[in-house]
Amino acid sequence: MKCDVNIITGRTIDQGANIDNKLSSDYFNACARCEIGAEDLETLGLLEGSHVKVSTKFGSVVVSVALCDGNMRGVAFIPMGPWANAVVNPDTHGCGMPGFKGVLGSLEPTDEKPLDLKAFMSLCRE
Amino acid sequence: MEITDAICSFCGSLCDDLTVKVEDNKIVDVRRACRLGAGKMLGHERINSPMIRNEAGKLEEVSSDSAIDRASQILLHAKRPLLYGWASTSCEAQSKGILLGEILGAVVDSTASVCHGPTTLGVQEKGLPTASLGQIKNRADLIIFWGCNPIHAHPRHMSRYSGYLPGFFLDRGRQNRKFVTVDVRMTETAAISDEFLQIEQGSDYVVLSSLRAIINGKGDLVPDVVGGVSKEELMHLSDMMRSCRFGAFFFGMGLTQSKAKYKNIDCALSLTNDLNTRTKFVITPLRGHYNVTGFGQVCSWQTGFPAVDLSRGAPYYNPGEMSANDLLMRDEVDASLVVASDPAAHFPNASVRNLAKSPLIQIDPYANATTEIADVVIPTAIVGVETEGTAYRMDGLSLRLRKLVDSDYPSDEEILDKIIKKVSRNGDVC
Ligand code: SF4
To answer: Could you tell me which residue ranges the Molybdopterin dinucleotide-binding domain spans (chain A) (predicted)?
Structure first.
């Protein structure tokens, strides 16, 4: 089952605590995730920790899904980092700032696993 | 040995009250820092040695001189170099970086372009009615957190400046103050606030405009619901804002990165100006990296602008044209130097792919996503831990960061100096 979402990215304390420790599994766990509300989790038919594919017209990425009661229905939060940046809007609309928040996309369950940082960055060097 | 009043060089709060215990030249305990600051001071894994990427695509350890030579050659041969980052280093290193940019005719841009760059644009339009964090601590009886979550990003901000401590005119601390959070998510900051307005994503501009209308006596023009918030809630918030004695509005990337971007800031600044016709109100951006504010200051006093294109022989500033992401998306950059930041982790993937296409030099204490695409890597000392330097707190107060332990790593400033010497010609001022 697919679920349409408005994607926002931002800081979290786990992301911040590992910002100088990016090759660690702690950073991966802090950032390769997508937080959604209970209704959206139910729509997807997933349990916390399952993998989802996040897709927008700018790209797609596989991350783990987590429950966040503070999110309105249809709002997906991905901590800032390489995984979030696979799906954000690179256009700055003439002010230097890419579209890191308010990116329309969808979530769907997947059997694929999230790539770790090294594997992810090697794609950028191809 | 115990070092008191040490300054934390992690976030823009620059807490200056830490006690650090050093044994055998190693920091073994940090008191009063939050999880972010303590983690940094206690240390993470470091880059061991300078490295150059070999023909097989692997980073290979080299001498410092070879790495600096290669870096200098790359920069000398570039037609459109980008010197990017600068948020987590000292003002002294930033100043050297801008000088290097002048010699090379480079674009020098900071991480502000992906955090509070739109704030600078808003401030250029409307000015910044602000106050020091000390004034806010001593006087503010109403604190608004809009599109920010200091409990996660600046964990001690509330306990030091914006909430819990008693102030000179507010002897009961938190009991004297009201907290209001406006956000699209119920964050931890929202959860401990007295009031929370959950607005629809991207509606900041219309909600701010509605508050302005109400405060300026045009409330009848405001519809019943704005951005998912009822008019009654907006009337209530505007009453709180008008009737406080000293209000402080803090904002983060919820405003700078959402739909209207710098126009959100323009509107928030206008709202603050409107409120100052009725009471005292100030506004302060919550700046992330500990010296991103410093880069804006240093670049402005050296070139006249908070980020700059020096390729024309005179400083040129036009965000949206010469900002790092715009240059990368147009695929103009043919070499880059990244100092004290990690654009590969924090730029959209499409920009990162273009960044990785041309030679990239990284100067940083830690391996990160940028290391994975870098061609030359030069490790450095950590400012505020292994070397001293100046940094600007988010409210524009400059503080001298101290050296707490000795290190064999050179400082950013020393490395930049060596590169400057290699790339300068007769007549360059350095
Ligand atoms: S709030 Fe910021 S400056 Fe203060 S200790 Fe935490 S990370 Fe360091």
So the answer is: 7-103
Q: CA–CA separation, B227 vs A23, rounded Å?
A: 40
| Residue of A26, A35, A58, A97 to mutate, testing the B interface (most B Cβ within 10 Å of its Cβ) | A97
Domain boundary among B253, B285, B317: B285
A22 closest CB neighbour out of B191, B258, B368: B368
pTM of the model: 0.96
**Length of chain A as a residue count:** 126
- ipTM comes to 0.97
Check if the beta carbon of residue A111 is closer than 8 Å to that of residue A51.
yes
Domain final residue, candidates B285, B316, B348: B285
HSE on the CB side for B265, CA within 13 Å? 27
- β B246-251/B280-285 pair status: parallel
The b/e string for B120-140 (b: 16+ C-beta within 10 A; e otherwise) is: bbbbeebebbbbebebbbbbb
Give the residue numbers spanning the domain of B411: 47-113+290-426
Whether B427 shows a pLDDT value over 70: the answer reads no
E strands along B78-136, which residues? 81-85, 107-110
